[in-house]
Specification:
The complex is a heterodimer of chains A (320) and B (329). With 320 residues, chain A is α/β, with parallel strands linked by helices. Chain A has one domain: Rossmann fold. Chain A has twelve helices and eight strands. Chain B folds into two domains: 182 residues, 3-Layer(aba) Sandwich (Rossmann fold), CATH 3.40.50; 125 residues, Rossmann fold, CATH 3.40.50. In chain B, helix 1 packs parallel to helix 7, helix 3 runs parallel beside helix 4 and helix 9 crosses helix 10. Chain B is of the alpha/beta class and 329 residues long. In chain B, helix 7 links the parallel strand 6 and strand 7. Chain B has a seven-stranded mixed sheet with strand order 3-2-4-5-7-6-12, with helices on both faces. In chain B, strands 9-11-10-13-14 form a five-stranded mixed sheet, sandwiched between helices. The chains are: A alpha/beta (320), B alpha/beta (329). The interface between A and B is large, with 43 and 40 residues.
Chain lengths: 320, 329
C-alpha cells in the first residue's frame, strides 16, 4: 500500500479542485431541488482534509461531522457515488439512505458522516480503541467543527482518549462560526487548543488554508502516534466561503471578511507554490481543472440516471 | 441432566465469562466493572481471569464510553457496555438511540453494530425518581434496537449470551431486585443460548393469561398460585424479550384462555402493555371473552417514601383485582 505522504502534490491539488467543483455542482443541483434535506458545503476548507489525507495511509480511519462530502472524496469515494447519495439514489455511497450528512464508505475506511454535533467524537475513540486492542498501528482522524468543542460528548471523548492513550487525532476545523454563532460568542477560551490542554493532550495550530502546512504538521503528529499511541489535537484555522448550509445567507459576517479569506484561497495558494517551483504549468492546471469539472458534471448525469432504492427493501437495513 | 441452582448474578457472570473466553473480540467496559467487580458484583473474577485489556473501568462518562463502544463495534469488536443502572443510560441516550441503531440504515447496510448494553433496569427499592426508571418502553420504540428482560437466572444467562453474539445492538435489561434471586439452570458446561424474541410459559393455566416480564414474573407466579385456591387457573407468560416480541406465544395463550391481564414494571402511558394490548385486540379480538386488563406503575415520578413507592408499583393486590375483573369472578 502506498503511503499517502509520497503522493504527488499535483495530484492533491487536483483533489482539492475535484472537491470544489463537485460541491459547486452540488450547490447548483440543490438549488434545482434535485437534492433534499440539508446540504453543508466545504468550499474554502479543502486544504484541511486534503492535507490530512496526504499525511496518512489509506488504511487509517477517518470520521467526520455532517460537512462530509470532501472527506469521502478525499478518501477515494467516487464523485458518482457521492452525487448519487445527494440525489438519494441506490448507487450512492450510503445507498441513498444516508443523504448529505451521512456519507459512509467502508472500503475506503470512511466511517461517516455524523450529523449530531460531536456525537461522533466518542465513536472516533472507539475506532482508535479497536486499533490499539488489535495492536494495529493505524491512526484515526476525527474531524469536527469549532461548534463541537462545547458539547459534552466532545469533552468525555477527549478525557477517554487521553486516559486510554488512544491513537486518534482530533482535528478541529475552525471556520470561525458554529452555524451563525462566532467562536467568541460560544467558547470561553482565548484559543481553542486550550481545550486539549485541559486533558493533557498535545496540540498545535495549523494554517488550514495552506495544504503544505497541514500536511507537514500532520505528518509529524502521525509519525509520533505510530511510534507510541496517544491522542493529539490539531486546530486548523480555516474558512467556509458559503453559509452554514444551503439555506444560510451568512448575514452574521461581513463581505470584507469573506473577501479577505478568498485572497488566501487554498487552491490558489498551492497552485502558486507549484508554479513558482516549476512543477505545474498553466496548461496543466487548466487541464486538471477541466477534468475535475468534467467528473463533477458526469456525476450529476450518473446520479440522475441511477435508480431509487427499491421500496421493497425498506425493511432490509433495520437489522442484520 | 443435572440441573443446579444458582443466582441471577452468577448466571450473568457465567455468561460474560463464557463469551469472553469464546471470542477475543468481546470486551466488557463500564463504571466499576473491573477493580470493584461491578457495582452489583456481576463481573466478579473477570478482571483476574481476562486482564485489564478486556475488563475495562471507565470514568463516570456514559455518553463517552457508550459511544466508544459503538465506534469499536463499527470495526468488528463486540463490546459489552455496562450501565451501572439504565437510569444512567439517559446520559448516553444519544449514543444508544441515535448512533447504535441508526448506523446500519444510514450507511446503506455497510456498518452493523454488534454491541450489548446491559445493566439493571426498573425500580428497585426506595431509590427515588432519578434511579428508578423502567426504560424498556423507550428503547423498544427505537427501530434497530433489540430489548430483552430476563426474569430468571436461566433466562439471564441464555439471553445475555445470545445478545453478545447478535450482530445488532441489544439491550439486556437486568434487575437489581433479581440479582440475588435463585433458579435452576443447566450444568455450567452446557452451552445455554435462549433466542431473542421467544416468550416462555412459566406456568400453565386455562382460565386467564397473565402476560409479564422481568420483575413482574415472580409476582405473576405468586398471584397465580394464590388464585388456584379460588379456582382460577392462570397461565403465566413471560415475554423475556420486548423486541422482537413473541406475538405467536401471546396469541396461542390467549386463544386457550380467552382472557388477558398484562402486568408490567413500566409506566402506563405508551408502556409495553399498551403495545401488547393493541396487538391482541387487532389480531385475535374474536378470541377475547373480556376486556384486556393491565397493571403497571402509576403515572408519576417515583416517590422516595416507601409507602408511596409501593402504591406506585404493581403488586399482588392490584394484579388479583385485575385478574378477577377479567374473569368476572
Amino acid at each position: 500500500m502506498q503511503p499517502a505522504e509520497q503522493r504527488d502534490e499535483v495530484e492533491m491539488l487536483w483533489l482539492m479542485l475535484l472537491i470544489r467543483r463537485f460541491e459547486e455542482r452540488a450547490s447548483q443541483q440543490y438549488q434545482a431541488q434535485k437534492i433534499g434535506g440539508f446540504c453543508h458545503l466545504y468550499i474554502g476548507q479543502e486544504a484541511v482534509v486534503t492535507g490530512a489525507i496526504a499525511a496518512t495511509r489509506f488504511d487509517d480511519y477517518i470520521i467526520t461531522a455532517y460537512r462530509d462530502h470532501a472527506h469521502a472524496l478525499a478518501r477515494g469515494t467516487s464523485a458518482n457515488a457521492c452525487m448519487a447519495e445527494l440525489f438519494g439514489k441506490d448507487t450512492g455511497c450510503s445507498r441513498g439512505l444516508g443523504g448529505s450528512m451521512h456519507f459512509f464508505d467502508k472500503e475506503h475506511h470512511m466511517y461517516g458522516g455524523h450529523a449530531i454535533v460531536a456525537a461522533h467524537v466518542p465513536l472516533a475513540c472507539g475506532l482508535a480503541f479497536a486499533c490499539k486492542y488489535r495492536s494495529e498501528d493505524r491512526v484515526t482522524l476525527c474531524f469536527f467543527g469549532d461548534g463541537a468543542i462545547n458539547q459534552g460528548s466532545f469533552h468525555e471523548a477527549l478525557n477517554l482518549a487521553a486516559l486510554f492513550k488512544l491513537p486518534v487525532i482530533f482535528i478541529c476545523e475552525n471556520n470561525l462560526f458554529a452555524m451563525g454563532t462566532s467562536v467568541e460568542r460560544s467558547t470561553s477560551l482565548k484559543q481553542i487548543i486550550d481545550r486539549a490542554e485541559g486533558y493533557d493532550i498535545p496540540s498545535c495550530v495549523v494554517d488550514g488554508m495552506n495544504f503544505r502546512h497541514v500536511r507537514d504538521t500532520l505528518s509529524e503528529v502521525v509519525e509520533s502516534i505510530r511510534k507510541d499511541p496517544h491522542p493529539a489535537f490539531v486546530e486548523a484555522r480555516t474558512y467556509r466561503y458559503r453559509g452554514h448550509s444551503m439555506s444560510d445567507p451568512a448575514s452574521y459576517r461581513t463581505k470584507e471578511q469573506l473577501e479577505q479569506y478568498r485572497l488566501d484561497d487554498p487552491i490558489t495558494r498551492l497552485r502558486a507554490q507549484l508554479t513558482r517551483e516549476g512543477k505545474l504549468s498553466n496548461e496543466k492546471f487548466d487541464e486538471l481543472d477541466k477534468e475535475a469539472k468534467q467528473i463533477a458534471l458526469e456525476s450529476v448525469k450518473f446520479a440522475e440516471q441511477s435508480d431509487e432504492p427499491p421500496l421493497e427493501k425498506l425493511y432490509d437495513y433495520t437489522y442484520v | 441432566m443435572n440441573m443446579r441452582e444458582i443466582t441471577y448474578r452468577q448466571a450473568l457472570n457465567e455468561a460474560l465469562a463464557e463469551e469472553l473466553a469464546r471470542d477475543p473480540n468481546v470486551f466488557l467496559m463500564g463504571e466499576e466493572v473491573a477493580e470493584y467487580k461491578g457495582a452489583y458484583k456481576v463481573s466478579q473474577g473477570l478482571l483476574e481471569r481476562f486482564g485489564p485489556k478486556r475488563i475495562i473501568d471507565t470514568p463516570i462518562s456514559e455518553n463517552g464510553f457508550a459511544g466508544l463502544g459503538v465506534g469499536a463495534a463499527m470495526v468488528g469488536l463486540r463490546p459489552i457496555i455496562e450501565f451501572m443502572t439504565f437510569s444512567f443510560s439517559f446520559v448516553a441516550f444519544d449514543q444508544v438511540v441515535n448512533n447504535a441503531p441508526n448506523m446500519l440504515t444510514m450507511s446503506g447496510g455497510q456498518f452493523n453494530i454488534p454491541i450489548t448494553f446491559r445493566g439493571p433496569n426498573g425500580p428497585a427499592h426506595q431509590l427515588g425518581a432519578t434511579h428508578s426508571h423502567a426504560t424498556e418502553c423507550l428503547y423498544a420504540n427505537v427501530p434497530g434496537l433489540k430489548v430483552c428482560t430476563p426474569a430468571t437466572p436461566r433466562d439471564a444467562k441464555g439471553l445475555l449470551k445470545t445478545a453478545v453474539r447478535d450482530n445488532n445492538p441489544v439491550l439486556v435489561l437486568e434487575s437489581e431486585l433479581l440479582y440475588s434471586s435463585k433458579g435452576m439452570i443447566e450444568p455450567a458446561e452446557t452451552e445455554l443460548l435462549i433466542p431473542l424474541g421467544e416468550a416462555e410459559v412459566k406456568r400453565e393455566g386455562s382460565d386467564v393469561t397473565i402476560v409479564c416480564y422481568a420483575q413482574t414474573v415472580a409476582l405473576a407466579l405468586a398471584v397465580a398460585e394464590k388464585l388456584e385456591d379460588e379456582d382460577i387457573s392462570a397461565e403465566v407468560l413471560d415475554l423475556r424479550s420486548i423486541k422482537p416480541l413473541d406475538e405467536r406465544a401471546i396469541y396461542d395463550s390467549v386463544a386457550k384462555t380467552h382472557r388477558v391481564v398484562i402486568v408490567e414494571q413500566d409506566r402506563p402511558f405508551c408502556g409495553v402493555g399498551a403495545e401488547v394490548c393493541y396487538r391482541i385486540q387487532k389480531n385475535i379480538f374474536d378470541q377475547l371473552d373480556a376486556p384486556i386488563g393491565r397493571v403497571s406503575q402509576e403515572d408519576v415520578p417515583m416517590p422516595y417514601n416507601e409507602r408511596l413507592e409501593k402504591a406506585v408499583l404493581p403488586n399482588a393486590e392490584k394484579l388479583i383485582a385485575a385478574v378477577k375483573k377479567a374473569c368476572y369472578a
